[in-house]
Design goal:
The chain has about 170 residues and is α/β, with parallel strands linked by helices. Helix content is about 25%, strand content about 15%. β1 and β2 form a beta hairpin.
Length: about 170
Amino acid sequence: MAKRENYISWDEYFMGIALLSAKRSKDPSTQVGACIVSDDNKIMSVGYNGFPRGCSDDEYPWERSGESSNDTKYPFVCHAELNAILNSGGHNLAGSRIYVALFPCNECAKAIIQCGIKEVVYMSDKYADTQGTIASKRMLSSAGVKLTKFEPTHKRIEISFDESDV
């Protein structure tokens, strides 16, 4: 019997983990996940966007606009990239890659650079024209972080929880 041929690539696997992590986010407008991977394809950490531990997601705002910035989610939400870095348990992330659904903001770019991540693999760059993303790309490029647009060979991957499929 020959080996199965239509299996997913490493990039699809790790982006899939990032996208699955995003499904944990309770943000009603934007769900983002991140997966940090060592140079030998070992998953180092995952994260998704949400409020910090101990901050109830029932007591903080999820709005995108309000009378003041504190009436919105933005001062409170921890982004997926930062959560993945913080969830790594202090492991050395130098030389690793981070897979993200959405191109990192300027604040996450700083954390990515500081912990030594060497490549960002991203799926969407829908905020490319914003000042934050422009600043992010400038810093990541200056720091020598490789920026790679995710190019899947499979448009969809289905996960079944039906035990008869195993």
